[in-house]
Amino acid sequence: MNPYEILHQTQRQRVSDGITRALLENCESAPHTLLLVWSQLGDFDSLEYAWWLKREAEKLQAKGIAIRAIGIGNLDSGKQFCNYTGFPAEWLFVDPDAQLHRQLNLYPGLCVKLPGLSTTQTAWLNLLLMCGGFGSPGTLAEVFRGYWGDRKAPQLIDDKEVVKAAPLPPLQGSFFKLAGGSGFQRPFELATLRLRNMAEVLSNWNTYVSNPAYLTQRGGTFFFDGSGKLLYEHRDRGILGWAANMSQPLSFLL
């Protein structure tokens, strides 16, 4: 089956009400549908994707794009995710065991196994290796981009916005002008947003990560027209690789 057929037949728990419903319910009349298959809801990739969708919400709404997402977690994970990111709970579904990811043949991540390690320990080992770039192409370059800045990317933090990213003190957006100006992604700007995400996840780890066995599982993006024709897809190849163009991750829509 092609991705649309799989997604069209898939039912999972919806975060807004806990009811098992079809992923693509109420998308039939939309001219386009964006279906996001996220990794763990406490994963950097999932949190960043939701941040960008919120940033561009008005443009996406003007285009009439129906958005649905499914992430690895349970209802508590989903509610925490939506409360933090502002992603609409009625658009989010949960898949505790990453069944849909396997159906779509998405990258499970590095699968190094050592004798004597439990499933959870093995997942942590592979996650740490992927963070170091093993079995996760582009991850280190993307980490460094967060610190170095990116003149091809837009400014991420408004000058008047105050960012709270423990253990750093609250930072006003204008602070980043000191690192090189404005109107583009300044040095340390993206890294600060990622630090804020990390603080959120670590302080709510047991809520976000209901099953550590799937820490390395990657996700994918699928964009369809009104007839179900696949117009665009991106299959994540590693950590922080959730878009083909990380400088402008939603450029395929806008």
UniProtKB/TrEMBL annotation:
Q: Which Pfam families match?
A: AhpC-TSA_2 (PF13911)
Q: Which domain of life is it from?
A: Bacteria
Protein name (database record): AhpC/TSA family protein
**Which organism is this protein's natural source?**
Limnofasciculus baicalensis BBK-W-15
Write the lineage as a comma-separated list: Bacteria, Bacillati, Cyanobacteriota, Cyanophyceae, Coleofasciculales
